[in-house]
Amino acid sequence: MQNGPTLRINFSYNLDDDDLGDDRYVIERNAFWNSQNTIDWFQKRGYTLYKPEYQDDCLSRTFVPRLPFVEDIHEGEYPYAAYDGRPALSDETVPLRAHESRGKVAFAQDSRNRHVAIKLVRLKTDEHHIAEFLKTQPLELLKENCVLPVLDILPIDDFCFVVMPRWGPGIISPEHRTIKEMLQMMHDALKGLAFLHRHNIIHGDIKLDNLLEDDFRDSFYSPDTGLRVRRRAAGHARYAIFDFDYSRKIPQEIDRRNYWVSVQSRYACGTFNLTKDYAQGELEYNPFITEVGNLGVLFSTYFQHVIPYLPVLAPFIDMLTTHKIHQRFTASEALEFFENFYADLSEEELGKYLPAWDTAPYPRPYYDCDRWASVPPHLAKKWAIYREPPLSLKTRLLRKLFEHDWLYYPKVILLRQFLAKIPKIWRAAICLVSS
């Protein structure tokens, strides 16, 4: 049993508090992380917390290592990331500076001077249960399946501290240079989502910010991305899914394909309905299907300009985002399709440089992008079964109807009930006229 200072969480700690426009939550949390009592508590357990970049700044969102580190390029050993700790290349760069805007995560060095991230998590929540699950998984399994591992869990009252390796954010900075580099990121994201879904874990917030790359430098500002560029070119870069704020783990025996929950559920938040799956006034949604669509939207947003150079992305993205949600790929089906077409690509094709990302104008929405315009006719015919069909008149009308802000629940329920009766009324009228 550990002796020493006792910690208490004496501030509000709910997802609903994360309005970044209200700085008092950040001040309260940072005051906790920066207190000498907290520093000593973690020190007793082998972790030396980073310090605020500006001492005694309770609103600080940037932090720097408290212990010295080797100021050169360090190649990490999994699960610990590589880092570029060279002296500042400009007046604005601070080596290994960390950035965290909400005060929910602290950074530290362990007893072997390896860099970790520490998140405060409420006990007996889905996030806590998922952290416990990940901690029991072999590191090699998590490495292969691209989910950030949990290294340690430190309980405290009704909370715990979840310790993870520090990896780097901003995975499209700089832009991927070749087809192979781009596909590595896509492959790892697919593997991570498929692994979570196999274990009936709904991530709930699939977006670019919740993917990390296994290198870091100054996370707030650094114009030098040389380490990341070199690791990608050498095939050493790896990506992982993390952050389970909005996640939940359902019993393993539940069939994911038939798991539907109310759109009014407290889980219908995070990154929700990017694919307009529930823009027709639906009362329920399937979160597994939804987040496959979210990943498809991410791929479309950042890589739709690559389709002329890699036409197979057209049917692939269509099957991730199709409005025919019962025909949409599952995460495992998407991974299998991806690995099949990847295996057929030659080294010459993989080595092709990507065109510049078309940021002006901003990439068209996934549903308004003509992905098939550059697909050769013989391939379009071969992949026709994967092509997204046009929206029906009914779907277009329902989307138009339910886009109005005034049409909130319970009005949606009443309207959906009325619309469901129309076919019956119509059939009854035809029978009456024909009798």
Automatic annotation (TrEMBL):
<protein>
    <recommendedName>
        <fullName>Protein kinase domain-containing protein</fullName>
    </recommendedName>
</protein>
<dbReference type="GO" id="GO:0005524">
    <property type="term" value="F:ATP binding"/>
</dbReference>
<dbReference type="InterPro" id="IPR000719">
    <property type="entry name" value="Prot_kinase_dom"/>
</dbReference>
<dbReference type="InterPro" id="IPR011009">
    <property type="entry name" value="Kinase-like_dom_sf"/>
</dbReference>
<dbReference type="GO" id="GO:0004672">
    <property type="term" value="F:protein kinase activity"/>
</dbReference>
<dbReference type="Pfam" id="PF00069">
    <property type="entry name" value="Pkinase"/>
</dbReference>
<feature type="domain" description="Protein kinase">
    <location>
        <begin position="91"/>
        <end position="435"/>
    </location>
</feature>
